[in-house]
Amino acid sequence: MTEQLSRPTRRNPLARTRLPVPLGGPRSRAAQGLTQAAAEGVFRLQVCTVCRAATYPPRDVCPRCLSGELVFEACDPYGVLVAETRIDISGEAHFRERAPWRIGSVRMDCGPMVVAHLHGGVAQGQRVRMTLMLDKTGGAAMVALPATYGDVPPDDRVLREFTCDPKFRRVLVTDGRGSLGQAMVTALREAGAAEIFVGVADGWKPFGGEAALRAQAGVSPVVLDLTDTQSVMECASQIGGRVDIIVNTAEHVRAGGVMAAQGVSEARAALELRSLGLMRLAQGFGPIMRMRGADGVDSACALVNVLAVHALMNWPEFGVASAAEAAALSMSQCLRAEFRGGGIRVLNVFAGPQDTEWFQTVPAPKVAPMVLARAVVAALRGGGEDCFVGDVAEDYRARLAANAKALERELGA
Amino acid sequence: MTDLLAFAAGIASGAIRVIDLTHTLAPEFPVIALPPELGQCAPFRMETVSRYDAKGPAWYWNHLSMNEHTGTHFDAPVHWISGRDLADNAVDTIPVERFIAPAVVIDCSAAASADPDFLLRVEDILAWEAEHGRIAAGSWCLLRTDWSKRAARDYANLRDDGAHTPGPSVEAVRFLVEERDVLGFGTETIGTDAGQAHLFNPPFPAHFTMHGKGRYGLQCLTNLDLLPATGAVLFAAPLKIRDGSGSPLRVLALVSA
What pLDDT digit, counting tens, does each position of A27-43 carry? Predict the structure, then answer.
């Protein structure tokens, strides 16, 4: 059974903070197909292109027909929990700390038998819905959830291990001056965040929505300018030990390509904020977050980058901005490796043009800031690390996967 | 022959006081606010190269970045389109003698306190002269408003229709240049012009007219309340930047005790 999560009590300052313990060893290249699926929040298994049998765990040869033509495909995620095991003692330090821990064998409707972590709401003999989630160290894990969507209490301790639910967590939204940052604050309040710090740069400049932002209960504006190392370090020194999730909403969107840009000042400003800003944020807040990645059910858990999907392929109409996004994306990939051992997930949320003043002349569809903010919360509650929000971002992903060169030509047409 | 050693001795003894009219360069200090689609004034930034650490075990030093017009700064004539074709119009070519000059201080702090859009008028200057004497040619004219004492938000004083900060009227600038032959105009506010000076004709007279006539600007000054109305000498030398339109600088005032 899943117990309703109550607000965690304050830490005993005399007790040593629990450190993250690595889970499992290196995965095979074939197994990274599951990692990719888990990262994107979809359920895929290896399927043999010759005999069409689905198989698990990942391998190089089909166990039924011995063909080497195995590809990862979306599969029916339902099955039956045929056997349940409760781990009370384990040789793995990770499970020893979490005992008792339930795992079970699930007979998938699509064929294979899968060993999975069990949500508190499932019991032996019941139908379950399988999901692929990333564990704290970035590996894919099978998690069996109740078969109907409405029956999945998010408070479950297994889900708290695999997700970054903002409920009862303290969140830093890096830029409250823009509409996305303000929407993010609203979405996080809806999600039950314990406290929301919201960064405000250039406090001497008024901004739209300021009075409402400053008046919200549970919201603490902090001085934070990602282009200023001293500001980031000062902010980190004050609240760094209390931040469980960072959502980087800082934006620098300007239309224009490379040759007509009249020098590099604009590009430098974009890179300062988007790429070096992320670096400053990581240097200021990362080390302490990494120490708190296993600190109970409200541990530090995630750094969220809201990225333009054009980080993945340059959109010449916003060419310089795309390049800055690509730099930020590259920085985030490095941070994933650095954070992984600390149990902190780097979640990249890709969106197409937002419905804001900087994309005023761009035709629909555009993503409303509130939609994007709620998608960030949903992604934190999921078990992935790459999330695409809105029609444009989804379309971009599909076209990129189908033919990256075609997308390059189409965007530059 | 002027006795420079006596001058140095005067400073050492305190007979000549040295007053710093400069704000500390710091990241949070406001800069001119322009519509975001225009080029922006980069604020002051400091990145540590090393601080007695692996990047330099025994030394501490920083990389700095900023605009030429960040913090307490000097405006050269080439800053404005009206001064672009003048001789010696950039910070590297201005004759260095111009960097040491007397200053008069017109105290409008009470009026500016009552009205953030206060404008210095010709009659204000004439009234000041009736009390303190005619402004000598080649002097800096400094407008004291006590604006430098305000916290950052009130200092920038931005509202939906732009900044509301004091400055000179079109006529006052013309009078100071044409009738009094001043060296330049200095203010405590972010610009030498009033916050609403984009609505004037010509817009931004302290830029258009001063620089068009080869005069200079000083802005973001502080401690003007420590200066006498007349008798101070300013040392205000910008960095020698090739073709520079201005420069942050240390502005020192020398005042007889």
Answer: 899 999 999 999 999 99
Cβ within 8 Å, pair B27-A205 = no
Does the residue A269 lie in any domain?
A: yes
Contact between B27 and A254 using a beta-carbon 8 Å cutoff: no
Question: Residues of A with CB below 8 A from B156's CB?
Answer: 204-205
A327 lies in which domain range? 170-411
Note whether A183 and A116 are same-domain residues: no
Tell me the shortest Cα–Cα distance from B156 to chain A, in angstroms: 7
pTM of the model: 0.94
Amino acid letter, B108? C
Q: Give me the CATH number covering residue B14.
A: 3.50.30.50
The distance of B29 to chain A (nearest Cα, Å) reads 9
Do both A299 and A371 map to the same domain?
Answer: yes
Write the ipTM: 0.91
A224 to chain B: nearest residue by CA? B28
Separation of alpha carbons A52 and A60, rounded Å: 15
| Total number of domains constituting chain B | 1
Residue of A339, A182, A190, A205 lying closest to A251 (CA atoms): A182
Q: Check whether residue A81 and residue A133 sit in a common domain.
A: yes
CATH of the domain at A297: 3.40.50.720
Nearest CB to B46 within list A230, A265, A266: A230
- Enumerate residue ranges in chain A where pLDDT < 70: 1-2, 149, 151
Task: Render the burial of A242-260: b for 16+ CB within 10 Å, e for the rest.
Answer: ebbbbbbbbbbbbebbeee
Question: Of A243, A308, A222, A240, which is closest to residue A273 (Cα–Cα)?
Answer: A308
Which structure tokens are listed for A100?
A: 């008792």
Does residue A26 sit within a domain?
A: no
Catalytic site residue from B23, B73, B79, B207:
B79
| CB contact (8 A) between residue A206 and residue B155 | no
Please give, rounded to a whole number of angstroms, the shortest distance from the CA of B178 to a CA of chain A.
37
Last residue of a domain, one of A132, A157, A182: A157
Look up the domain containing B150 and give its range: 4-256
Please tell me whether the peptide bond between A100 and the residue prior to it is cis, using omega within 30 degrees of 0. Answer: yes
Chain A contacts of B68, Cβ < 8 Å? none
Interhelix angle A179-190/A369-381, rounded to 10 degrees, is: 40
Q: How far apart are CA B116 and CA A51, in angstroms?
A: 81
CB contact under 8 A, B152 and A254: no
CATH code of the domain containing A122: 2.40.50
The per-residue pLDDT for range A91-126, each reduced to its tens digit, is 888 888 889 999 999 999 999 999 999 999 999 999
Residue of chain A whose Cα is closest to the Cα of B153: A204
Total domain count for chain A? 2
Q: Is A397 exposed, middle or buried (0-12, 13-18, 19+ CB in 10 A)?
A: middle
Chain B residues in contact with A227 by the CB 8 A cut-off are: 43, 45
Mutate to test the interface with A, among B31, B40, B45, B67 (most CBs of A within 10 A): B45
Residues of A in contact with B42 (CB under 8 A): 265, 269
Whether B73 is a known active-site residue: answer no
* Residues linked to residue B193 through DSSP beta bridges, in sequence order: none
Asked if the structure places residue A4 within a domain, the reply is no
Q: Is residue A358 part of a domain?
A: yes
